[in-house]
Amino acid sequence: MNYLLPIIASCLIPVVTALLGWFIHHLAAHTFFTSILPKRQQALAQQLGAFAGQQLSFSTIKSKLTDPEKIKNIIPLVEAHLDTFLREKLPKAMPVLSMFIGDSIVNQIKSHLVAELDTLFPVMISQYLDNVEKDLNIEKMVADKVAGISAEQLQQISQQMLGDGIAKFKLLGALTGFCCGLLALILLFIF
């Protein structure tokens, strides 16, 4: 019976070191998410803001918003509003005009206005976006949003994104601890 105790103790060394390795990695992950990440949140926010500012050029956004195909998608909506305006709102606002405006004139006015708006919209949207660009700082917006996230939310988001990675990190600690325990056991028997 006395000879079994050293064998059991020897078998426990790799198990204990595996548990110790898992615990150390668990503690490291916990420390990262509860202490290090919240303290570095402002720096992270600035770096993410800078990255977003570099990746999202306003000229790209502007070119997408002023794309003629996108504007053509707006025209049916504008045409419907013009139709409602010319047939219902304008006659109510100016009853005398309703005597002179029939379907053919409404259709002519609408077609001319739509054609004019087709050329006016890109210029108007481009000019509007030029004004917006002066006030819009994507880098600052992203940095402010990330900096405004609470520490708990940041921790939760990070853990959701890295969930499998964290589990693998802890298993790596257990595997490393187990291997270190086996190595210690082998060295113990050799020397």
UniProtKB/TrEMBL annotation:
Keywords: Membrane, Transmembrane, Transmembrane helix. The chain crosses the membrane at residues 6-24, 171-190. The keyword Transmembrane helix applies. It comes from the Bacteria. This is DUF445 domain-containing protein. It comes from Chitinophaga eiseniae. The lineage of its organism: Bacteria, Pseudomonadati, Bacteroidota, Chitinophagia, Chitinophagales.
